[in-house]
Design goal:
This protein has nine helices and two strands; from the N terminus they run αααααββαααα. By secondary structure, the protein is mostly helical. A two-stranded antiparallel sheet has the order 1-2.
Length: about 200
């Protein structure tokens, strides 16, 4: 009974937050509604036993992506009049995408209700035993069967990170850089100058 109430509560909150994310006039409010949708989606994942996906939603999406969106939106100088004008121009394209996504969801729900997918005479998805936690089963599969794919994805991210660092720290002219060694070796007499000006006389810099 409690699980059913929690499911309907999380589901209603996810749908309402998603609708408010789209219909909110203020982009900052849209990001805040999106964060609420992520939290409630994490609750749904906990109900079905996918605690790893729930933690990913909270840590990655809420803690990094949504907060990044919020900071970017707050720093942008958004012209709301132009934003509303562009909404009517791209409305048919948005409706077409929404219809395509809705059709995919309906097809996926129908396939899920039909049972497991059969590939070459065998079941494509093998459920893990009940005594094995979700995170342990995922880690075992990730570091055994898909180990090389996982390491390849990490290598791609490493190359992208190195490329971003190299592009950011390229040589630029006319930039004053900090010399920590020179600052540490600076003496007090080199940094200050004692003067005794008379009344009405300024100090020469």
């Amino acid at each position: 009974m409690i699980q059913t109430i929690a499911f309907y509560l999380f589901a209603v909150m996810v749908i309402a937050s998603a609708a408010l994310t789209i219909t909110a006039r203020n982009p900052v409010h849209s990001v805040l509604w999106l964060i609420l949708a992520f939290f409630n989606a994490a609750g749904l994942m906990l109900l079905v036993g996918a605690e790893f996906i729930a933690m990913l939603l909270v840590i990655v999406y809420v803690g990094a992506v949504a907060v990044l969106f919020l900071f970017v939106v707050m720093m942008l100088d958004i012209d709301f009049a132009e934003l509303r004008a562009g909404l009517s121009r791209y409305l048919p394209f948005g409706v077409a995408i929404a219809a395509a996504l809705l059709a995919e969801i309906v097809i996926a729900a129908g396939v899920w209700e039909a049972g497991p997918v059969q590939l070459a005479g065998r079941t494509a998805v093998t459920p893990s035993p009940d005594q094995v936690p979700n995170i342990e089963a995922l880690g075992t599969l990730l570091y055994t069967r898909y180990l090389f794919v996982f390491e390849g994805a990490g290598l791609v991210l490493l190359v992208a990170m190195i490329g971003a660092i190299v592009l950011t720290h390229r040589a630029r002219g006319g930039v004053r850089r900090q010399n920590i060694m020179r600052q540490s070796m600076r003496r007090a007499e080199d940094a200050t100058r004692m003067t005794n000006p008379t009344v009405g006389q300024g100090v020469e810099l």
